[in-house]
Amino acid sequence: MLWLAPLFPIIAALLLYRFWATSPSRLAIAWSAAAVVFLELAIVWFAEASGWSGVLNWNRHLQLGIGFTPLTFLAALVVPVVAAPIVFFAAAHEEPERLGRLIALLVGFVGVMQLIILARDLLSLLIAWEIAGAFSWLLIGHRFQDPERGRNASQAFLVTRAGDLGLYLAAFVAFQQAGNLAYAGLDQMSPVAASLFAAGVTVAAFSKSAQLPFSPWLFAAMSGPASVSALLHAATMVAAGVVLLMQLQPMLADVSWFGPVLMTVGLATALAGGWWRRHHPTQNACWRALLQPIMV
């Protein structure tokens, strides 16, 4: 039953887009989107209170699993809470051309983020991770008639895709060691395998969270609509890497370099962002200044 939490916003976005695509009413679009987001919040709350979980058996070695922990429950509540005012803003202030498409993508992205948060195995995480990349490309490149915006969307997509290869490395190492991709049992890896796994996960998290050396994609992504930057790059997608590292940290506690590397790269990213803001003032300086704390 817990599969309803990530799938509901995605299915609702697909179904309602049919009506939003031709709807001239900003108010109708806003209230329809908000209703989906608030229902998602209620589903998450009820699912946790009812002890829901979700497992789909792929074969005897692989399965798709999602579930709650105290951390993931809190994160799953935060996503729709943050998304609600953003979809209202988008419906009220974004350009009317293809507004229904934009709002549908924003709502669908809520479901993708929920799957990233609730995933209890690397296969579920990989599926959600890839879909999130596709959604971000569509959202950043929403104004695709402008060639520069299209190039910026592709740049952001390709840079994050390069970092995503680390997640495939981590999944390969985990499967080779344990014979499955479940989070449970990752702490039983050999020291060398644990270091390789940690390296892959760290690279993937750094790319999604715009840490060095992947930070430039975040500035390219600013060419998208303001609501896209608010939801993806200031609130949810850049937090995906952080949530992933927090979930896996107990399994990687014995990797000696893991914590120091996270702190060093986070500090370096913050300092580099501040330096860039200081020495490269532009007409987007306000936006760039707001993005610096995100890159920590």
TrEMBL record:
GO terms for cellular component: endomembrane system; membrane. Its main location: membrane. It is a multi-pass membrane protein. The keyword Membrane applies. It comes from the Bacteria. Keywords: Membrane, Transmembrane, Transmembrane helix. The chain crosses the membrane at residues 6-21, 28-47, 67-90, 102-119, 125-144, 165-183, 189-206, 218-245, 257-276. It is found in: Endomembrane system; Membrane. Residues 119-274 form the NADH:quinone oxidoreductase/Mrp antiporter transmembrane domain. It holds the Pfam family Proton_antipo_M. This is NADH:quinone oxidoreductase/Mrp antiporter transmembrane domain-containing protein. It comes from Marinobacter adhaerens.
